[in-house]
Design a protein that fits this description.
Helix content: 40-55%
Distance between the termini: 30 Å
Strand content: under 5%
Largest sheet: 2 strands, parallel
Number of strands: 2
Order of helices and strands: HHHHHHEEHH
Low-confidence stretches: 1-20
Strand order of the largest sheet: 1-2
Number of helices: 8
């Protein structure tokens, strides 16, 4: 059983091993904060001033690269405003430091593509405040500080929340299987060190 519990700690302890892949729900929350992830992904459906046109890199090539997101002011200010307003209403409070961490490592989609502004700086550069332009599903480009489409944001939030919940359940089932597979043989092997239980087992086997 000790070995089984040790394996659980192996899966759930963050930073225990360099490059370790943590289980979702046990130290790994790839879409959290849902509010911030939903804001960014909703805005990434629009082309930016620095987006590529006439792409010849294949049908799966992305028109907007991480470095573009890192430098585009309309994207950064729109993302910051959305995050500041949407995350303020989350049931579980989210700190500024958590939002800054999300911003630094995930807002562009690539860790090495560092945004030209921090989250706080992007929020400070929102003008007008609040934004007056409301994006629609018919829009193709994001070229000013804008408000996200609420239906798109909510659909993404629901999807990220449901996906995380399902993946966390899968992680729990995986851990349970490991505990049973490793713990049961260990528990049975310990029975021989318990004289009373050993005699009971012998009695049951002989009757």
């Amino acid at each position: 059983m000790v070995a089984a519990l040790g394996l659980i700690l192996w899966f759930s302890a963050p930073g225990l091993v360099a490059g370790q892949q943590l289980l979702v729900g046990y130290g790994n929350y790839p879409y959290w904060p849902f509010c911030a992830e939903s804001c960014v992904q909703a805005l990434k459906t629009y082309l930016l001033a620095c987006s590529r046109t006439g792409i010849a890199d294949g049908p799966l090539a992305l028109p907007t690269l991480p470095d573009c997101y890192a430098q585009d002011e309309a994207f950064l200010t729109s993302s910051a405003w959305c995050i500041s307003t949407k995350c303020a209403g989350e049931a579980v409070p989210i700190t500024i430091s958590q939002l800054e961490n999300f911003w630094e490592y995930r807002v562009t989609g690539k860790k090495s593509a560092v945004p030209k502004w921090t989250y706080s700086a992007a929020l400070a550069n929102v003008d007008p405040r609040p934004p007056t332009y409301q994006l629609t599903l018919a829009d193709k480009r994001l070229n000013r500080t804008s408000l996200v489409v609420n239906s798109s944001y909510q659909a993404l939030w629901n999807a990220f929340s449901a996906l995380t919940e399902e993946q966390a359940k899968g992680s729990t089932y995986s851990i349970a299987l490991v505990v049973v597979a490793l713990g049961l043989p260990i528990l049975l092997s310990l029975l021989k060190y318990l004289p009373l239980l050993h005699r009971v087992v012998d009695w049951v086997c002989t009757t």
